[in-house]
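Anyone else keep sequences and structure tokens together like this?

Example one:
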Amino acid sequence: VYDHKEDTSVGGGHAAQWATGVADMIRDSARNIAPRSLFPFQRTNQSSGTFKVSHAQLVENILVGLGATDAITISGFLLTFSKEMAASPPSEDQRNSQCTSAEIFAGIVRGFMLILDDENLRKVWESDLIPYLEEVIPKIPI
């Protein structure tokens, strides 16, 4: 197992030598944002393209903190951004962009479920969320 940091000093001049995954683990732990359920108990790092519940919970908590009226307004902007992310062109970042889009949508839906009454929730589904899904789902490659 290699665990030597990069040495760029005069006379040093060797690149970092890390065992597989060590650099990712150090980077993730240094960010100090990973919840206890993510690091180190799961083999998922912050740079992976997997869905992260913590991101959806962040969006949810922001909307809940804003209240119903402001949450509906802000969700419009978030859904527009989410559509752009879902429609990302084929590239290395396409999967990450589409995961981010799904995280935003999940956070918005969960936030609305917590703060809106049944009638307003139905209206938001009909006016914003279902049209969003109808537009975004065909753009995601299978």
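And example two:
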Amino acid sequence: MSVGDVASVVKEKLLPYAGEWWFPWAVGLLSCLNTYILFLSGPLSILFISGTLARPERRFRAAFANALGATCGIASLVYIGKSSDIFPLFDGKDWETTRNLVEDYVHLGVILIAGLPIILHPMVFFAVSLMDPGSLILCVLIGR
């Protein structure tokens, strides 16, 4: 399937739905689920862009719904981590930059990392011991 074919399918099948009032909120809900289902990132980008193209005047609502969804997913991850003391271990060089940003800059580091198009799990793991849950969740919302 070529890029032109994908664009044609998106235009014909997705854009009619992308203009609906509920579409940004559905994308936000999927963004929340993406906290636990990591392979949704690519399709979510397509859905987000489609919604913005279909209704450019609602781009800020779409961005807010996406940020709110991601924040709710991270809030649930923080809650589960705090209540059960179970977090995956993110040791090694791969997450060293994330760890350094969070440990050195705490709130600003979390906002910076949350603004990047990467998974937030390691950042939550490093930040949960340095910040109270409310501050962490607010920083994720601001960054997203």
